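lol forgot to send this yesterday, sorry. struct tokens for the thing we talked abt
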């Protein structure tokens, strides 16, 4: 085709001629008049708040996520269990811990306390307190290795759990996540 005797260009070679292309320098889609949808979620990049990540229309092109309150509830009920006389983290807990680390990265106004516990069959009183502290510290160290800052994290050895009737549940680490109070 020619415009006034001159050929019409398609600079980005997306099949939409430049004089009809809203984004003539970038390969785009006809439904968006030549503008791109990089992540393929059906929302053109100019209107997509997360143009590089597939998202939902209701979230303006960003992925739907759980509300922090829902995640908070899940993490508050999460326990990491340990073998007798051990403070080594089993591989089965790595994904849960990585999710906790991601939560803290995404919501820096939350603070995590890691509470370690032991049971009465794990040595003498002083050794049980030490083991409970080492369990909490091993979880805190893992979270720090995942990028959680020390300002968002503390570990506490709580000693012997005398409340749980099930021995294996006494050898654990629990989490307390709290939103920090903002000072005026």
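and heres what i got for the seq, position by position
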């Amino acid at each position: 085709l020619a415009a006034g005797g001159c050929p019409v260009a398609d600079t980005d070679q997306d099949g939409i001629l430049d004089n009809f292309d809203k984004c003539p320098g970038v390969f785009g889609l006809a439904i968006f008049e030549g503008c791109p949808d990089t992540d393929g979620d059906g929302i053109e990049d100019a209107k997509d708040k997360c143009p590089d990540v597939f998202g939902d229309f209701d979230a303006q092109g960003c992925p739907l996520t759980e509300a922090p309150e829902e995640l908070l509830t899940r993490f508050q009920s999460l326990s990491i269990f340990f073998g007798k006389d051990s403070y080594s983290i089993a591989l089965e807990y790595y994904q849960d811990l990585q999710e906790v680390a991601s939560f803290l990265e995404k919501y820096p106004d939350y603070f995590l306390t890691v509470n370690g516990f032991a049971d009465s069959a794990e040595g003498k009183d002083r050794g049980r307190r030490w083991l409970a502290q080492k369990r909490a510290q091993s979880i805190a160290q893992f979270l720090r290795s995942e990028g959680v800052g020390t300002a968002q994290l503390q570990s506490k050895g709580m000693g012997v759990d005398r409340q749980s009737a099930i021995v294996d549940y006494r050898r654990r680490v629990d989490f307390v996540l709290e939103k920090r109070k903002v000072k005026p």
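Strands lie at 2-3, 6-7, 79-81, 110-118, 153-160, 172-179. anyway ping me if u want another try
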